[in-house]
Fold:
Amino acid sequence: MMESGTQVTCRYAGTDFDATYITDRDGMAVIKLNNGYNIGVDPACLTVVAPAEAVKGVGMVVKQDTSLPQLSIISTGGTIASRVDYRTGAVTSQFTADDIMRAIPGLADIAQFRSDVLATILSENMTPAIWQTLATSICDEIKNGAEGVMVTHGTDTLAYSAAVISFMLDTPVPVVFVGSQRSADRPSSDNVMNGLASAAAATSDLGEVAVVMHSSTNDDTCAIHRATRVRKMHTSRRDAFRSIGMAPVGSVAYPSLDVTLSKDAVRRRPDTEPVLSARLEEKVGLVTFYPGMNPDVIHAFEGYRGLVVSGTGLGHTSALVIEALRSLTDAGTVVVMTSQCLNGRVCDRVYDTGRDLLAAGVLEGENMLPEVAYVKLMWVLGQTNDTEEAARLMATPLRGEFGRCSDNGF
Amino acid sequence: MDFDYAALGLKAGIEIHQQLDTAEKLFCHCPTVLRDVEEHNGEFFRYLRATVSEMGEIDRAAREEMMVMRPFSYYAYDTTCLVENDEEPPAPLNPEALELSLTIAKMMGMTPVEQVHVMRKLVIDGSNTSGFQRTGLVALNGTLPTGERIESICLEEEAAQRIKDQLFSLDRLGIPLAEITTAPDMHTPEAVKSVAAYIGMLLRSTMQVKRGIGTIRQDVNVSIAEGARVEIKGVQELRLIDEVVRREVQRQVNLVAIKDKLLARNASVDEGSHDVTALFKETGSSILKRAKAIHAVCLRGFDGLVGCEIQPGRRLGSEMSDYARKCGVGGLFHTDELPAYGVTEDEVAALREAVGAGPNDCVVLVADTKKKVICAIGQIRRRAEMAFLGVPEETRKMLEEGSSAYMRPLPGAARMYPETDVLPVTVTNAYYDALVLPELLTDKAGRYVQETGLDASLARQMVYSRRCGLFEEAVGRGVKSALAAHTLLGTLKELSRDGADIAAVPGEALIDLLVRVETGTVAKEAIPPVIRALSKGVDLGVAISAVAPSVSREEVRAIICAAIAEREEFVREQGMRAVGPLMGVVMKELRGRADGKVISELLKEEVGKVV
Structure:
């Protein structure tokens, strides 16, 4: 296979076309004609004219203003910035601070940046091991003087990561997770506004882990969501991220970048050191109950230290599944009930089914989101081997993951 | 204005953009219908930014569009979806649109692309929510019967319609467009027109393209040997296309003449500009008086040339003004047109003195906020420098009557990259070979003349009519071609002119009516009133019996006998000559309920009995 960028001629439709070889696909050679269009042709019609030219380096130098606040950007693979090579059509994700600042020029007016490329993964491939590295890395950045940390992340599992980091790291400064829903190569991408708004939030008076993304389809405001109350609620829209059961803890206006924090937002605590408790128990599961569920699904979690069930309504499962859950709790597994309604609180004291679940040793997960209960249980079981203590921690709001009272209007 | 085009080395090519009449849009399943803006049920706004390429560069066309950063607003409808909103990945390439574009390609003897790849073409003027237009090259290399070459056909998505300023309507975004590009093989304005007309006919022959103003648009590429390639966008009317070419040739010839004069005069553009705001403190020009800042630049040796007409209604100054507007200013003043607009001779003299302008120099000034004015002066200097090179390569937009204004630089080929959300589509030989070609409208008109004896001019009108299908069906069911054509073209047009809602008339009912007329059960004279009833939603049978209840032969005979009896003396006197006048009387009585031929026949019979 020849190198991408090789200059070729293509004998096609009775004419010799000058073109650039891009790649092979489905047995065809993809070439870029001089008018910019790619077409797929039989590789046999190509003749090499000249080898690929070396790609020139990017000229623009990024200047950092040392009078501005110090922020850190930690990349995990979310493509907040990308660069298009129009010669070959390749779109490359950018991860270093220089590259990101080049792609989002306004950043240089908000802060000075350090960067750390921690991983370059698709976010569905996130693992507890990377969460631990991430928490440690954020903690180090804060200890080294970062006044705020931005974490770029793929949006699929962004909410899981933000939630677990908020349990692992007690942070005195903003730790802001940000991503983009529409690819960074497109002129309409949400990356620039989300990037600038997250930087503004990271320099603000916030003192907790948060997610900053578009609050509507308009380019006017980003919402600041509490990491333990946010969920991706749409596959593709810019405003996919929603606070569940509470209002966002703040907002960033665009293009002014004015940050507004609600009274609920945890405030920055200067002169306070971050506290890292990075141990996680990986033998924890999350399962959604559905009508007709075979109890074998539950039995598959035998040997697990924890299991979060996303039940129906107020937090229910079928009688057969309750029996299977009882055998898990009998063997020492901590089982926490949440609701697939997502909105509202679990209450297993209304119907017999609920009372049976409680009798089977299942814990009520209050109004925690199932995913948040899952990462919290991983963290709790990483902190203690004692089931009673684990139950007590699960019933205690640690990072605003549930409220004692359910807010009006949600 | 006529030129020796061969001597000037005129080369012209066209790009035709034709909306395809498919059921669904190119990359989503929404219908391809245009809406009234009043019907919008959603609105949102966004900013667009050019992205940096591998070389750290932003495309020159994109850079200019970005000079003023402002949000674009969009109207959404219950017939648009998240794909138009750039909030959802595109659906697979619409197979109906691909088939149609390949059919058009085959009609021009083109070679299909083995595997079609959809690209993203950067467009950040707001007309595409994503900031790019999706487009794929589907076929290459064809020829027209007159020898002009067709370079390519691309299948692309239509842009959103600009309602006003930065406000766009999403109903049009995503309608499939076939973009047909000819080689620069035309060498006269008339050749451009006839090629455009031929391709238009070919497209209409598919019977699957949209019709009406704006559904087909031509871009014209024009250059003369001493000029440069200029693309003029948005020629919506075929009748203007040769005029556009003529005027562009005129513009290029005049710009070359200006270049020669500038070089002969040893002209130059001043490096710096002057803040002359204070000079106009007490001016009678309200624009200048209001302005926060007024800056001027001196163009040495340009006197008389900035005001020189280069095409009807356009001067070199208009070109500079177009460039300046990219900075958000309303326009400019120059000394070739001053004193005027409330600016006095004294003010002009003071201005000339302030910038050190001599009698051979032209001073250009711009009034607005300081930031915009500085930007605009830079653009004016840039355009003035270009005058030394003659004709700049540009994308222009057509103005009324065929002149044009500057839009943006010609885009580089660099602004395309793959649309990774749409899988490539393979076009096999078997698929392409199996595509059935429609009959060309010109061939069809010839066939109508040959097979049905229709008059040639009616045949031409008929094939271009939306009701061509009805015509064929009616003729197929035994209706004479002239009756069918006259009804479908003439009668319907007259009724429509009189206010009848012709679109509401069902085609099937029209054909039934024509068949009944042909077989003599309904009188020919009843056609207009029956169609009028049909247009009000009345059923055909009901319409006929209400407007023209059929009258039996015997009833007709009875009416004739009564008429004769009343005028017995007259009939005896006149003999068979009485048939003519009586015909009028009886026809009036029957009001189209019986065929004229039958009345005439019976009348002759009965009159014969009397005399």
Observations:
- The first strand of chain A starts at residue 7 and ends at 12.
- Chain A touches chain B through 54 residues (CB under 8 Å).
- Chain A has a mean pLDDT of 93.
- The CA atoms of residues 216 and 282 of chain A lie 36 Å apart.
